[in-house]
Amino acid sequence: MLSRSAGLAGLEQRVIACRRCPRLVEWRERVAREKRAAFRDEEYWGRPLPGFGDPAARVYILGLAPAAHGGNRTGRVFTGDRSADWLFGSLHRTGFANQPTSLHPGDGLRLDGAFVAAAVRCAPPANRPLPSERDNCLPYAQEELALIDGVMAIVCLGGFAWDAAVRLLELRPRPRFGHGAEHELPDGRTLVGCYHPSQQNTFTGKLTEEMIDAVFSRARELALGG
User: Fold this and answer.
1) Using omega within 30 degrees of 0 as the cis cutoff, is the peptide bond preceding 173 cis?
2) What Cα–Cα distance (Å) separates residue 74 from each residue in 151, 198, 225?
3) Domains of the chain
4) Which of 7, 104, 138, 209 gives 147 a disulfide partner, CB atoms 3.0 to 4.6 angstroms apart?
5) Cα end-to-end distance, the chain, whole Å
């Protein structure tokens, strides 16, 4: 456990220092300077975001990228916005989180059995990373999965994360994304699809609490060998 935690800590520092993608560096730092009016008195993080969670996780959750005024502001992935409310609300209800909110680092949130990361670690313009930016970032997820070697379920939040995982895992033919879709990997792990908890999906009812809870309940079953 000590070596795993140390490895993740070292990876975290390399992620935070990353400047591989000039477009993302310029955007994340501009957002951090200009800020949103509601957060004008806050100091924005404005850097890449490492993964967050339990080093002994059995469930690895992969999102798209940090939100400009969510993770890019707070300094923790999936933190400080509506998507965070949905994700951690569900993780709390399904037993992976000790509280239903993720507001800022130091808020007391702890994950048990789950680790959360993003396919792209910097906030992208219009929330749309370029393929080259995705490919620059994927080695970080690869390292996380190598270090967190007990993972049995990889939950992909949205089609972009699913495609990133498919590319990372070199799956051929490409399994089709869908909410609740499952694809068993040769090593016994399972790729699980979930609609992204974006406002576009939650406000329209495309994703409901029951739907996201069903995905994480299934991920728990897979984590336990079910």
Assistant:
1) yes
2) 27, 18, 35
3) 2-223 (3.40.470.10)
4) 7
5) 25
